[in-house]
Task: structure prediction
Amino acid sequence: MFDFDLPTSRLETDSIRWDAFDKEKAIPLWVADMDFQSPPCVIEALNNRVQNGVYGYTHSPLQLNRMIAQYLLEQYQWKIDPSWIVILPSVVSGLYTAVKQLTNSDENILVPNPVYHHLRLACSSSEREFHEMPLQLHDGRWVFPTDSLPDLITQNTTLALFCNPQNPGSTVFTESELREFGNCCVENNLWICSDEIHAGLVLDEEKKHIPLASLSEEISKRTVTLMSLNKTFNFPGVGLAWAVAENPALRKAIGVGLHETIAPPSLFAYTATMAAITKGEPWRQELIKYLRVNRDLIQNRIKSIDKLSIGKMEGSYLAWIDCKNLNHPNPYQLLLDAGLATSPGSQFGQSDFVRLNFGTQKSRLIQALDVIEFACA
Result:
């Protein structure tokens, strides 16, 4: 029904991903946005809004919170009150606000390693000390060593940052893993800020996304959940995000700065998000099938290359490739010199890895894997 093999050109569109490198020298598979067109329903809705011709100041649609609440119920069996939702311009702005508002300058924060770099940057930009929670590869999955988590918590620890599905490791945490982490935070009186932007991109057919805050009232009242459809439906340039917080104090904290120093979403962001919620599911299902093929292609090729390894890829379109056995001081630069731009592992806390974005046409991915094989030969 939807042709994800259809070639797309992002040149001369001011694309961050495609303009960062010379297209004649490197295939750019780094920052996390996809090369596919957004769903036809989103394109049609945006076209209709453009044809309206008036683009004045626009408030959040009155029905949006109800639509999001219904979407979360249908997708994740998570029943929330629409009043728990705070509309944000992005998940990243929510991360920075949560760190600044939920901690004091003399308090510290728990942050996974490896993890999406903005979780650490949110701490350093607010001049907050953070302690890393090292993830371990167990049966091909990047998971918390939960028995040692309490040892990382000090009397000054007040907030834990979380990422599920995990970026860059792509783990989709199980209910028992989530409960262990959430209950540890509750027992130690920690706030939780959970980045769940990749929730709609679970690739493992045996897994499903479980919002951390859906597990119990105790965990919910200590958690701010950050979500968005930007990644799933590929419109980060016009998208919005939302926070879910049952606790009124957390809702107030995450809303600090909105419409003051933090701009609201654009009118097109509301249009795109509502179209994806109401009509985007068939497209999402086909996307997941396509990404599974790309995932399997990567796993088979990487496993065939001596000195490289990769864990299970349960969610998202990001491959976390272990380059330690290459014994090269800079695997990212090695691949870049060979003609492939990835994200350097140092960005996520582990310099012996690279992160590869496989949200692209299969033909381009094959070219990228050929480059990797050549560079590692």
In short: The longest helix spans residues 281-303. The chain has a mean pLDDT of 97. Residues 11 and 300 are 30 Å apart (CA to CA). The domain at 64-278 is CATH 3.40.640.10 (Aspartate Aminotransferase; domain 2).
